[in-house]
């Protein structure tokens, strides 16, 4: 569960650093014969085993951690291990610095946390939570859109707190804020990569409050709403004679391929097919 690169042809690992997002790092890896020496992280470690079995010593005992397990480790938790089966294992991990975790907790709960957060165990057999974790981790690990990564992190940490540490995550009062102004802001900046902090300044709400209020008003979290506006803008550009590559650039997508995936997921057809229609 340490930061590791690809060691063998059949093993692969990618690490993403997000200095603008509380300094977190995300890891996606598939290991066969990888072994880790005893070590600990300065950060909180949250993860999911989404394939195979990982054999991990932690907190005084050896654990066989299968697919569908959620991992929650505190800063300083010593652990080591390797594969629990010949097939190896797949894992997705997030490393959150303590200062970043304090900021997230204060934003979600509305109060400053006291001491180190403890989920009571390092490994949790929670297949449903693990599946949701994997989806959000994928967005956090691979998305080119700042707002998408922002919302994925808040949703992921909020879900972990709600399901594994409910005593910490007490419901906070609902806020309405100036959501209409935030909607107009996103609408006027369809080509931009808008961070969640911009919307919070407009609404006067915290990050979690802004996401929840936006969803109540529009039916979608802000990143999904903004993505739909981008696709709508691409449709207008294609009808105006722009090429898919030109439309992708003008709508603020990372590239034509990125735009095409989202365009088809929302419209059901490719941009080229839409332009011919």
Annotated CATH topology of the largest domain = Jelly Rolls
CATH homologous superfamily classification of the largest domain: Regulatory protein AraC
Distance between the termini: 50 Å
Rg of Cα set:
20 Å
How many domains in all?
A: 3
How does the major sheet shape up? 9 strands, antiparallel
Mean pLDDT: 90
Q: Can you give the helix content as a percent range?
A: 40-55%
Q: Beta-sheet strand percentage? A: 15-25%
Helix-strand pattern, N to C? EEEEEEEEHEHHHHHHHHH
* CATH architecture type of the largest domain: Sandwich
Keywords:
Arc Repressor Mutant, subunit A, 3 domains, Jelly Rolls, 277 residues, single chain, alpha+beta, 9-stranded antiparallel sheet
How would you describe what is shown here?
The structure is a single chain. The chain has helices at 98-109, 127-142, 146-164, 179-188, 196-203, 207-218, 222-239, 244-250, 256-267, 271-276; strands at residues 12-18, 24-31, 36-39, 44-58, 61-66, 69-73, 79-83, 89-96, 123-125. The protein is an alpha+beta fold and 277 residues long. It folds into three domains: 12-164, Jelly Rolls (Sandwich), CATH 2.60.120; 179-224, no CATH class; 227-276, Orthogonal Bundle (Arc Repressor Mutant, subunit A). Strands 1, 2, 3, 4, 5, 6, 7, 8 and 9 form a nine-stranded antiparallel sheet that branches. Helix 7 crosses helix 8 (244-250) and helix 8 crosses helix 9 (256-267). The mean pLDDT is 90.
């Amino acid at each position: 569960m340490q930061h590791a690169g690809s060691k063998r042809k059949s093993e692969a690992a990618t690490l993403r650093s997000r200095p603008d997002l509380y300094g977190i790092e995300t890891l996606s890896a598939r290991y066969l014969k990888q072994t880790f020496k005893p070590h600990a992280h300065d950060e909180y470690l949250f993860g999911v085993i989404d394939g195979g079995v990982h054999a991990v010593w932690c907190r005084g005992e050896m654990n066989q951690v299968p697919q569908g397990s959620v991992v929650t480790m505190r800063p300083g938790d010593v652990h080591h291990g390797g594969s629990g089966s010949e097939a190896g294992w797949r894992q997705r991990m997030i490393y959150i610095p303590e200062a970043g975790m304090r900021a997230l907790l204060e934003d979600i709960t509305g109060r400053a946390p006291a001491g180190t957060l403890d989920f009571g165990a390092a490994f949790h057999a929670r297949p449903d939570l693990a599946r949701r974790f994997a989806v959000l981790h994928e967005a956090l690990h691979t998305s080119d859109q700042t707002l998408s990564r922002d919302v994925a992190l808040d949703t992921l940490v909020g879900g972990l707190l709600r399901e594994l540490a409910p005593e910490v995550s007490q419901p906070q009062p609902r806020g309405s804020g100036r959501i209409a102004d935030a909607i107009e802001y996103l609408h006027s900046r369809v080509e931009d990569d808008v961070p969640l902090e911009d919307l919070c300044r407009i609404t006067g709400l915290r990050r979690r409050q802004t996401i929840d209020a936006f969803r109540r008003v529009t039916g979608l979290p802000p990143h999904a709403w903004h993505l739909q506006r981008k696709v709508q803008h691409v449709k207008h550009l294609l009808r105006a004679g722009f090429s898919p590559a030109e439309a992708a650039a003008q709508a603020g997508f990372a590239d034509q391929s990125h735009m095409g995936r989202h365009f088809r997921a929302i419209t059901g057809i490719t941009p080229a097919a839409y332009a011919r229609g």
